[in-house]
Amino acid sequence: MDIKSIVLRQVKMDLLHPFTTSVGTEYDKDFILVEVLSKSGLSGWGESVSIVEPIYNEETVQTNWHIMSDFLIPMLMKASIQHPDDVSDLFRPIRRNFNAKAALECAIWDLYAKENSLTLAKALGGVKQQIEVGVSVGIKNSVDELLRQVEGYVNEGYKRIKVKIKPEWDLEIVKAIRREFPQVPLMADANCAYTIEDIPHLQQLDEFGLTMIEQPLDSDDIIDHAKLQKELQTPICLDESIHTVEDARKAIELGSCKIINLKIGRVGGLTETKKIHDLCESRGIPVWCGGMLEAGIGRAHNIAITSLANFTLPGDTAPSSHYWKKDIITPEVKMKDGYIEFPKGDGIGYEPNMKLIDELTVVSRTFS
Ligand SMILES: O=C(O)CCC(=O)c1ccccc1C(=O)O
Ligand SMILES: [Mg+2]
């Protein structure tokens, strides 16, 4: 693969609705778009999931800009890349910084698929034709506000509802949702809001038939997750704790989870995502694709990876209109009866809307 230049753009978009989790509220999104241009005249695109504050993980837009500009891009420009799988090996000397690595690696994957006239899903070894879509519902000001939103999502056809929980916003809301929607596939995501002292409290969730509880305990604690899982009927799904295939292996062997949420950004790219997917498949652990409120480019990568066989649970891959007045790709991602169809075009299969991207760009830098 012959890389001619790489463009970083920091863009800013307003979210249609603020999104609140146990760690904070996002009103808008500043994030980095990566464009890798080849000598053959094609462009591959990637999007970093980092936000301005280091509250989901330790990375931010600024740390990404630094790590990409000063380390990762110089490495890429010097290397000879035969296949996108080479990129994660190339980046290995740089510790962590998973979101930064993933944004570049995703752009290389898109470029590779385009150079070989393949959809990204096909290039990744995907087999599915359409994907089931779930929705992640943030913390609200009142139970009634939450219930009316859930009702709207159920009517729109989402295949699974995920609610954000934290102490004081958990048992009451799950109970209220179950009362009105006894059958809806329901799960809860705590974003690390509990401790091992909360075992008796969390056990009270067992009676509501949740498909899983996502990341109840701290991000770097798979030991206590294993203790908790032994005391809970509800399956634990890990999100923040899993960055590598080795993390996944250890968590599975300890019994820290029964399901894994895969986020391309959190694990440093598509190659590592595939490795974790394959490991989970061989150990009987289902996976699903998480979301980080991505704009269209990141969303397109999420859709492509969800085509792999062991993504058997609905993902947080809601359509563009759930997040944005206008998305940065054409066509926008659409959902019909709770499904997203895969795009047919090469690579990510959606075209970046360059006019809109230029309008939203705060700063850009070209490396050649
Ligand atoms: O993109 C989406 O719709 C999922 C939103 C979501 O749950 C989330 C959004 C930002 C940061 C962390 C998470 C999470 O899954 O924990
Ligand atoms: Mg989560």
From TrEMBL:
EC number(s) stated in the UniProt entry for this protein: 4.2.1.113
Keywords, sorted A to Z: Lyase, Magnesium, Menaquinone biosynthesis, Metal-binding
Residues reported in the UniProt entry to bind Mg(2+): 189, 214, 239
Ranges for domain Mandelate racemase/muconate lactonizing enzyme C-terminal: 143-235
Pathway: Quinol/quinone metabolism; 1,4-dihydroxy-2-naphthoate biosynthesis; 1,4-dihydroxy-2-naphthoate from chorismate: step 4/7; Quinol/quinone metabolism; menaquinone biosynthesis
Requisite cofactors: a divalent metal cation
CDD domains: NAAAR
InterPro entries in the record: Enolase-like_C_sf (IPR036849), Enolase-like_N (IPR029017), Enolase_C-like (IPR029065), Mandelate_racemase_C (IPR013342), Mandelate_racemase_N_dom (IPR013341), MenC (IPR047585), OSBS/NAAAR (IPR010197)
Domain of life: Bacteria
Catalytic activity reported: (1R,6R)-6-hydroxy-2-succinyl-cyclohexa-2,4-diene-1-carboxylate = 2-succinylbenzoate + H2O
Active site: 164 (proton donor), 263 (proton acceptor)
Functional summary from the UniProt entry: Converts 2-succinyl-6-hydroxy-2,4-cyclohexadiene-1-carboxylate (SHCHC) to 2-succinylbenzoate (OSB).
Family indicated by similarity: Belongs to the mandelate racemase/muconate lactonizing enzyme family. MenC type 2 subfamily.
Designated name of the protein: o-succinylbenzoate synthase
Organism for this UniProt entry: Anaerobacillus alkaliphilus
